[in-house]
Design goal:
Elements lengths: L11 E5 L5 E6 L6 H15 L12 E6 L5 H8 L9 H4 L10 E3 L5 E3 L17 E6 L11 H17 L5 E4 L28 H10 L8 H9 L1
Parallel strand pairs: 2-5, 3-6, 3-7, 4-6
Antiparallel strand pairs: 1-2, 4-5
Helix pairs in contact: 4-5
């Protein structure tokens, strides 16, 4: 199946939150041709040592990010190409498939779904095969400028995903992902393939975690404890 950018492939989906407010996800799909699917499968084989028939994943982790780009249009353009652009040399040695993300949240809090939720996206080293990614527009030059509207949207999105996928047990920020190294869910085979991240930062993660504490999602402390067992 060949997914193209647009609002009509899934339509617009509305969800009702526990507070009675309406939570909306808008489909704005990136290109995902058979070639991109095949390159994603090659990434799985090269980095995780698995050879699946398709790129469907079982979500266990939610990873929150920022795009380091100031606006929605520029952020979307970063994920739309199927091949990794020359501007990402730090990732080029690890495969040709471009980075992707399941969800993108604009500064006004609008939530966009960029691809089928349970297709693997290249967004977090070592954890792509178990994780759903949420990018937030902003964070340019490493400055935490994420908005209150984005915070509320991330909280609602986390709740939606955990309700839909009971297999999800972890919630982390991209800057925390290397805490998984040595954990059973860490899959990266190349010990030299690492990047250091700062997004979306402790302020944002602390606020999201506080708001969804009733979900009992595991974070850094629980990950470290599990590695010691």
């Amino acid at each position: 199946m060949y997914w193209r950018t647009g609002l009509t492939a899934f339509g617009i989906v509305l969800f009702v939150t526990g507070c009675g407010a309406r939570f909306k996800i808008i489909d704005q799909l990136i290109s995902f041709s058979p070639e991109r699917i095949e390159l994603t499968r090659q990434y799985l084989e090269q980095h995780y040592g698995v050879s699946p028939k398709d790129i469907t994943i079982t979500p266990r982790i939610i990873v929150l990010h920022w795009t380091a780009i100031a606006d929605f249009a520029g952020s979307f353009r970063a994920f739309e190409p199927e091949l990794l652009p020359s501007s990402r040399p730090e990732l080029a040695s690890a495969g040709q498939v471009n980075v992707a993300i399941q969800f993108l949240v604009d500064k006004d809090g609008k939530v966009y779904r960029l691809m089928p939720e349970t297709w693997m996206a290249r967004h977090c080293i070592g954890l792509n095969y178990e994780s759903l990614g949420v990018e937030n527009v902003g964070g340019e030059e490493g400055v935490d400028n994420l908005t209150e509207a984005q915070l509320r949207a991330n909280i609602e999105l986390v709740r939606y995903l955990v309700k839909k996928y009971p297999t999800i047990n972890y919630l982390i920020g991209h800057h925390e992902h290397q805490q998984f190294v040595g954990h059973p869910l860490w899959r990266e085979k190349d010990e030299n393939y690492r990047t250091t991240k700062t997004d979306p930062g402790d302020r944002f993660m602390t606020a999201v975690r506080a708001a969804v504490s009733d979900l009992n999602l595991k974070g850094v402390n629980e990950i470290v404890a599990e590695k010691k067992k």
